[in-house]
Amino acid sequence: MIPRPRVFVTGMGVICAGAGSVAELRRLLREPKRSFQLPTVFPTAGESAGLPVAQVSGFDVAPPDALPRTHRLALQAAREALGVGPAPDAIVLGTTTGGILTTEFALQAGCTAPGAYRFHGLHTVAEHLAVSLGVRGPVVTVSTACSSAAVAMSVATALLRSGLARRVLAGAADCICRLTFHGFRQLQLVAPQGSAPLDIQRAGMTVGEGAGFLLLESAPNQRAIVAEVLGTGMSCDAYHATSPHPEGTGAGLAMRRALQDAGVDPSVIDYVNLHGTGTVDNDAAEARAMRQVFGSSLPALSSTKGLTGHALAAAGAIEAVICGIAISDGLLPANTGLQAVDEKLELHPVRDPTRARVGRVLSSSFGFGGNNACLVLGEAPTAPAAIEVGTSHPPAARLPPLRVAGAACLTASGDLAETWKALLAGQSVAGFVPEAAFSKAAPTAFIRRLRRLPRLMLALAQTASRASGRTSPPDLLAAGTAWGPLAETQDFLRKLFETGDQFSSPMDFIGSVHNAPAGQVALLLGAQAPNWTFSSGDRSFEQTLLCVSLAMTSGAPSALVMAAEAHEARLSPLFDPAAATGPLASDGGAALVLVADDGAPGARVRWLGENGNGDGSVQGAAVALCAHLAAQAPLDCYDAVGVSVPAAIGADADAELLRLTEMLPSCPLLTYRDRLGQHASVSATATALAARAVVEGVLPFGPDGISLRHRRLLLLLLGAHATAVEVFA
Amino acid sequence: MATLEQQIKERLVEALGLKIAVAAIDDNTPLFAGGLGLDSVDVLEIAAMLSLHFNVEITAGDSGRYREIFASVHSLADFVRERQAAPK
User: Has the ipTM of the complex gone over 0.85?
Assistant: First the structure.
């Protein structure tokens, strides 16, 4: 067996309440002093007015057209992690808020200028970093609530182990905003006096903010190594939309998977940085999980959220930096905010910062949707030879193809069969999915509270699963969505503004989280597998496919992959130009059940690449990607090329399409959004249709369709980062 | 004017997105298992609804009484009357 490349931490960057750099966080950990305060970046009223947050200071004053707060936090920490080194090959970033703080003010003011919302999307945080730092490879956005950072680290680790990248910037960023502040408050999860994790009197969390990044490398300079990423592990409770499983089953599973991936026994862990939010339920469930994994000989442990607050997506990234400091400085961080420990938890947290040798640490992050993710970090190897195993590993030329075991899609014409038929009849399937096409997906009681996006995803997941004939839940569950649950976001903010920043619906908050739909799918299917949501704009589906392919390369036997968008009358046209294209404005999506290529007949799908110019421009990105692909295999093997041209690109697409036509003279170029409609996840629909087309040998475009001699199609997405996927039989 | 019970039923159907008619809810219909089939998320939604429309706060301090307060529309109305009568 070829040893897999090792993954080293060679740079760290952080910003959180009380610390604007790694050096400041180091000082703060030695002399912990928390700095919770009343929020100053948005108004509060009534009952909410006295609740503290963990706010980053010095970031308040910004010109009106400035970047949103999350973007600025991310950039500062990313620059620190990168130092003076060259641009990384890829970025993997976790976030749940994106530009929402800015959006809240614009919506409240009734602003309808689309430019006001250009940084709303979660993907814009990582894409802004990519432009600022000149990144040309994959720019991936993970949104799995409070486990986002640890999932991002895991994806980055997989990218490095696959050889697709050698330097990856991985981390997360979130800012305080009204959505999360009032959302957690209405869920009665916010501590009035500030969080006190593991305390007998603990009364909830303190909503925080910040950003953290690790620069991860597979072939670094020995002197630069701070620590090593030994392993990652993920799971899903598949138990409840927001509450952890009371026995901590899913949390324990993620810890064990991380230890297994690291190849270490629980007994060698010197320190555990707990998720430790300070809510009654989290701490109780996590304590049970800790005892399941470590038995009675628990390592040193603490939650640092009493010091930094709970920075949501960024929490796991800030805590990864804390773990890096723990290892490099030989410091056990204190469980700040603790007065009297809750004896029932049977945990004995570190009370004061303590000097100790810290060789290996486990860091846990758990989020809404029952999403759990853990990291195992270790100290830097002492001998240079230890690294060479990694550097001798040849970079993988390509990810392997995956077999499509089942597929489903939803368009304005209905399901996959109805869509196929309409396309063969020469009709457009653009428009919004009719309610009847997805309303019978799950029992009424199950979907009572669910709005359009989770219902679309449930229907897609269930139909694709049934089509695959597989009875067991998938080993991986990955969803893509550019814009997330917009109806829930709109209703939450509308009610909040109507009540003068006092009340809104806890149900809408739970539903507004980007990974809520995938969490519902896990509940319906009983899937305790890792559960991911990617929100990478128009590339959300492609990146879902990339990350699933990476995971399946290292052994996951099956995956459910899907992507969908749900149109919302007010917000969609403000956020995505695709939703303002008249009759082409659409929603819907698709799901695929993928298995490792076992030689069985059927369609194959393979992620081929992502390429950007590094400056945000569209021109030449897809052309360069095709030139790169042509160097690996001749492009005349394709019967046709489906090109996704998002409305947001506008006229920039014309020159790119012309050059692609010149590159691919024997291959018809089909701009499929003209037929399938304009929405950010339509490439999933195109992939599901392509999977059927290559099996049937005909592409359902035009009256008789286009005959497919090679049964091989290339799907390109134009944008600042172009992507390529191939489908063949 | 509608009774407090009637107002609460209307708000419940609206806030929880219940697919039943207000008239089909009896004052003593259990809110949870065997009745309307509500769950823990609904409890929070009801707490937010009471806060917004009836100016009554249910806090963590009331958690020992959840079972009693959230038994039925009748018990919710009793709780609202109790809190509204109590000196602020």
Answer: no
